[in-house]
Amino acid sequence: MKHVLPLTATALLLVGCVSPPEARAPVRQPAPVERKAAPLPPRTVIVTRGLEGVIGKDANALKRVFGEPRLDVIEVYGRKLQFVGKPCILDVFLYPERKGGREVVTYVDARRSDGTAVDRAACIEGLLNR
Question: Residues 6 or more apart from 59 whose CB is under 8 A from it?
Fold first, then answer.
């Protein structure tokens, strides 16, 4: 019993030294901001003179006009068809009109077999007249 009293007194002294935790005002988290990605702008198609017969056409229409392409490359977001003739090599790039829409030609590139650039309209005309 002699030892209990000093231990109890020491425990009471230690408890008195401990301060209670500070009361803090609850921190309010800001409401989450919902951010939506901006919709893709509509794809603009620039038609230059002589390309009207190709721009806006789908792959089936091109095959009816030019025959089977030498290359038919399906990419993540689009497709490339390559038509070849003596006058030139014509690359046509097809992309969906809208999400889930049909793929149509939005860009045309033309060159000779040595890589020299060729007028795109002249290339199309040359391939049509072969």
Answer: 72, 79, 81, 94, 103
Per the listing, tokens 């005309």 go with: 125
Q: Which two tokens stand for residue 50?
A: 């002589």
Number of domains in the chain: 1
The pTM is what? 0.61
**Does any domain span residue 2?**
no
pLDDT greater than 60 at residue 64: yes
pLDDT value of position 11: 60
Average pLDDT over residues 67-92: 93
**Whole domain around residue 108: which residue ranges?**
59-128
pLDDT for residue 52: 86
